[in-house]
Amino acid sequence: MVETTLFVALDTSKNALDVALAEPLPGGEVRFWGTIANQPAALDRLVKQLQKGGRRLEFCYEAGPCGFGIYRRLNAKPGVSCQVAAPSMIPRRPGDRVKTNRRDAKTLVKLFRAEELTWSWVPDEAHEAMRDLIRARSTAVQSLTRCRQHIRSFLLRQEIRYAGKPWTKKHRVWLGRLEFAAPAHRLMFGEMLGELDQGQARVARLEDHIRELVPTWSLAWLVDAVQALRGYRLIAAVSLVAEIGDPRRFESPRDLMSYLGMVPSEHSTGDKVRRGKLTKTGNRRARKILVEAAWPYARPIKTAAAHPSEAVRMIADKARHRLGRRYRALLARGKIANVAIVAVARESIGFIWAIAHAAAPGATSGQPGEHRHRSALAKVGAGARSSHG
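The chain above was modelled as a monomer; its predicted structure follows.
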C-alpha cells in the first residue's frame, strides 16, 4: 500500500486550535476540519482520528506565544512530523481585508502544501530554558533602566544635579541623603529608591544564576570561544549564543547574516540596482547584542583575550585588526559612527561563524581542525564582500 500524506495546519490561540487539511497536489482538496481545545488530550485525539488508514501527517503552525509544546508533542509521535512557520515570512495578500481563524488556517495549509513557508529554528528544551533565563535578565535590565530614568527626570524637575558619575555606590549614598520639603515627594522618592535597589539586586541575582548554569550547558564551549572577540564578556556571549544557537547549522556567514536581518534590503528592476537599509527581519535581540559588542572596535586595538585553541586565537586576532580597519575606513568615507558600527557588527557575524567551526568539540585538534578554520575564514571574506555589495 502506498503511503499518502495529509497536510495539516493549526491556527493556535490560548484556548483553541483551528484545524485545516489539504490533500496532496495536484488537485488535492483543501477544507476546514474544525476547532479543538488547545490541550494535549485533544491534540492526541486529532492525530489518532486523522491517521486512520495509515496516512502520514505533516503538521505546521505559526510561531507565537503558545511556544513549542505542540511541536515537540507531535514530533514525538510515529508517522507525524511538525514544523513551525516564521510569521514575518508568511506571504500576505495586500488586498485581503478579512481575517478569521478559519481563513488563516486554510491559507496556512495551502502555503504549507505549496512549500511557500519559511521555518523557524526550534531550540531543544534545555536551550529554551537557558534563553528564557537570559531574556528574564534582559527584562530586569530594562526595568532598572526605566527606574533610573524616572529618578533622573524627577531630580531634573526639582533642579537637583549630581556632578560625578551616576549610578555608582557614591551616587547611591548621595541619593539617600537628599531631602524634600513636600511629604508627597519624600514618600515618592523613597519608593523610587526602593525600586532601584530591588532592580539592581534582581539583575545581580540573575547574572549569578547565568554564571552558575553556563558551564553545564551544551553550548558552553561556544560561549567560551566567543569571548575571545573584543566586546564579548560572559553575559554578552551567552546572550548571543542563546538567541542564535549553534552557528554551524548555517552553510555560510552570509546565511547567518540574512537570518539575523543584517543584510541590505534591495529593490532592483531591469538595469537599476537599489539597495537600502538593513532588512531587520531576524532576531532583534541578537542584532542589539551584536551592535553593542561592536563599539569597542571604535577604540584603539587591545590585546586579544586568551583562549586555549590556537585556531580561535588566530580568528580573534584577525577580527581585531580587520574590524578596526573597517570602522576607520568607513569614517574616512564620510559615514557617521552609528552606520560604521552597524557595518562592523554585520561583518563580525562572519568571525563568530568561523569561531564556531574552529572551537567545536573535536574540531581544533590536528590538521583537520586547522584546515576547517582556514576554510571558515575564507567564507567569512566571501560573505562580507557579498553583504557589502
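Residues 364-371 have pLDDT under 50 and may be disordered.
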